[in-house]
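Human: You know discrete backbone vocabularies at least as well as I do. Show me how you would write down a chain together with its backbone fold. No explanation is needed for now; the record alone will do.

Assistant:
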Amino acid sequence: MDVFEAVAEPNRRALLDALIDGERTAGELVATLPELTQPTVSRHLKVLREVGLVEMRPDAQRRIYALRADGLVQIDEWIERYRRYWTNHLDALERHLTKTHKETK
């Protein structure tokens, strides 16, 4: 599985969203998805770890999860192409609207 397959699943995206403000324990992450069982959340976390989007560190009996910024690079690079696309199209739209507005005065 790759990063894109991992984030295609909505519950995994929800787990990433839960980690955006900082580290969370496994129990806290399970609580963010009350419709899922603990084993199911653990499987999702395992997938996110395997593709490099999150890391886990043990803390006594707890497992602490955090985002791995470097894991998001592949997604960011892919999205960048679309940012450029939208920027170019929005710039063209702005020029068109400005021109149209000047012509109607």
Notes: The chain has a mean pLDDT of 90. Residues 73-103 form the longest helix (31 residues). Residues 3-104 form a domain with the Arc Repressor Mutant, subunit A fold (CATH 1.10.10.10).
